[in-house]
Design goal:
By secondary structure, the protein is mostly beta strands. The chain has a domain of about 270 residues. It has two helices and 16 strands. The strands form three sheets. Strands 1, 2, 3, 6, 7, 8, 9, 10, 11, 14, 15 and 16 form a twelve-stranded mixed beta sheet that branches. A two-stranded antiparallel sheet has the order 4-5. A two-stranded antiparallel ribbon has the order 12-13.
């Protein structure tokens, strides 16, 4: 009879009645309380001989800190040119760059050996009636057909340890940008316009993104917060009602102000929480993802500029499949961008002068004034290949919001 591996628990939502069930995997870790403390004189050199370590093995999910870590540092450089254009306008152009070294990243300290697992993945490669190696089998005991025993595929910590993330200062990131701006102030009009064309790249944009323990360069990609192009215009105009009508308390003190922004979208983060890589870097929390990536066939993505018109679909999910067994996946963690921003915030204000020291300011403010759907944000597009909404736009910014405000100064 061929033995089969136990089913992998499914993720589940955390809840108070089941506080010791992992939200990431659904595994029940049991009731640890009341906890029995080690004797006061127990130490590394004088361990407590009464502890049965077999109940804790394989030790998993324990974050550690690389003893070889060194202090991170960042190099920055900038070249800027300013030019006055007329009496009321200043133009500027800048090149801004930086490079960060020894950034803290999460890396599997005890990865599985994909080649070893593949050599035990077929029924003719193991003894009859014993388990074959496959995803999530890094801590399983195998019996090769030629004889002997393989106590799991993990190393260098060995079978007494499972998946344990190491926080290591081995990451690298860089940013380069062209920044243009124009500032104008004269009479009734004041505005500031700024445009940035830049790119940010890193191996991990946060501590929840693990890097490949065998080849960290595979994770080098645009940062999750990268915005390639960003244009922002802020302005205030004193409305000239007092010029076209009699100047009095009713026609003076009106102003129109606002912020207009056009920007390209954030990169779509591709997530594959499977273990086809056979590395076994299982997520150690609900906000972490494994090092596996989908396979990408290189076909056009057919990015949708208006997801509302095709059932919220943003890219062609058929271009991606689960990675081939024993490989980390051919797709980069991020290599294309989601929908951009096209937003207008405006305010109409009336300042009522009541006396030398007293005034009343009335404002009507509108955010996303034209109620344009903003499918913008790092998580707006679902890049999780294991999700039923993979490839779809799953969130949007707030619709139009109007509010009124009043301020009395004295």
């Amino acid at each position: 009879m061929l033995l089969t591996a136990p089913p992998i628990p499914a993720p589940r939502r955390p809840c108070l009645p089941l506080p010791f069930v992992s939200a990431a995997s659904g595994q029940n870790f049991g009731q640890p309380f009341p906890y029995t403390f080690a004797p006061l004189n127990a130490s590394r050199s004088h361990p407590d001989a009464n502890i049965d370590w077999s109940t804790y093995e394989p030790i998993s999910g324990i974050p550690g800190y690389d003893v070889h870590n060194r202090t991170p540092y960042t190099e920055e450089w900038m070249l800027s040119i300013q030019r006055q254009a007329g009496a009321h306008t200043v133009l500027s152009a800048s090149y801004v760059g930086d490079a960060s070294h020894r950034q803290r990243v999460l890396v599997e300290a005890n990865p599985g050996n994909p080649a070893l697992c593949l050599s035990l993945s077929q029924s003719n490669e193991v003894q009859a009636g014993t388990l074959t190696c496959g995803p999530y089998g890094e801590n399983t005991v195998y019996y090769p057909a030629a004889g002997g025993m393989v106590n799991g595929t993990r190393g260098p910590l060995g079978p007494s340890f499972g998946s344990n993330a190491l926080q290591s200062n081995t990451g690298f990131a860089n940013y380069n940008a062209l920044q243009l701006s124009a500032r104008h102030k004269s009479g009734r009009l004041e505005f500031f316009a700024a445009y940035t064309w830049g790119k940010s790249l890193d191996e991990a944009s946060n501590i929840g993104e693990e890097v490949n323990p065998f080849n960290p360069a595979l994770n080098y990609a645009p940062s999750s917060f990268d915005v390639r192009q960003n244009f922002v215009l802020s302005y205030e105009y004193q409305l000239p009602f007092d010029r076209f009508f009699p100047s009095n308390g009713l026609t003076r003190g009106w102003s129109l102000s606002g912020i207009t922004r056009f920007a390209t979208g954030f990169p779509v983060t591709l997530i594959n929480n499977g273990d086809n890589s056979l590395i076994g870097s299982n997520p150690n929390g609900v906000n972490n993802s494994s090092v596996d990536e989908p396979d990408y066939n290189g076909a056009p993505l057919h990015l949708s500029r208006n997801p509302r018109s095709n059932g919220n679909n943003y890219f062609d999910s058929a271009d991606f499949t689960m990675n081939v067994l024993g490989t980390p996946g051919t797709a980069k963690r991020r290599f294309f961008y989601g929908p951009g921003a096209d937003n207008y915030d405006m305010a109409l204000a009336k300042n009522v002068k009541m006396s030398e020291s007293k005034s009343l300011l009335l404002r009507i403010e509108g955010f996303n004034v034209f109620n344009h759907a903003q499918f913008n944000g790092p998580t707006a597009v679902d890049g999780n290949i294991g999700s039923t909404t993979f490839g779809n736009v799953v969130s949007a910014a707030s619709p139009r919001i109007l509010q009124a405000a009043m301020k009395f100064s004295f």
